Amino acid sequence: MFGLLLAGCLLFLGLQAWWVLTPGVAVRSGPRMVEIPAHRGFLDVARILGEAGVIRSPVGFTLLTLVRGSMRSLKAGEYQIPGGANTVAVLTMLEGGHVLQHSVVFREGATVAELAGQLAAEGLARADDVVRAARDAPQTWQNNDPTMNSLAQPSQTSTMPGLAASTGATGGRQNSCCASRTTSDIEPPQVSIVASQ
Fold first, then answer.
1. Chain-centre distance of CA 136, in angstroms?
2. Nearest to 68 by CA among 83, 48, 89
3. Are 166 and 192 in contact (CB under 8 A)?
4. pLDDT tens for residues 64-115?
5. Residue 144 predicted with pLDDT over 80
6. Of the candidates 73, 96, 119, which is a domain's last residue?
7. Pairing relationship of beta strands 32-36 and 156-160 according to DSSP bridges
8. Last residue of a domain, one of 49, 76, 96
9. CA torsion angle for 105, 110, 114, 120 (degrees, to 10)?
10. Distance CA 37, CA 46 (A)
């Protein structure tokens, strides 16, 4: 009886190991986008990844997360899971917060309200969060202008919940902004906007 139980456990663990080391159905032929919402536990994350088809076994993902001790360090955000990625690679991406970067181009001299509108239109941040971050960190904006009319001071940073963004000059006429959303299960989401010209 004990031998049969041991054989069953070994078979179960062997199958889980196989499923952890092989790609999920959705990423066998190419990349797949997956959104991991903020403030979800690792069991919810395993379910979301399983339903998206990027991992073969939510149980295997859960066991691997427990073994690696990363239950509370998984980051929320939008991920592009590369084609052929196995469960180990997916877990490593979520542990490191390797979220998809979005490029947003805005014209030089754009107001904070215009930047906020563009980021909201792209689904990267709520406009009121961007405006609030600008208001809370006025040293980021031109001449500490309390009206927040234009981006100007190079290499200044403002941080707010929900988005990480950086901007850089492109040809002197437009600024580009790379943005991503990252959070962890236990940390509040962060947004950084770095303006340079």
1. 24
2. 89
3. yes
4. 999 999 999 999 999 999 999 999 999 999 999 999 888 878 778 888 888 8
5. no
6. 96
7. unpaired
8. 96
9. 30
10. 12
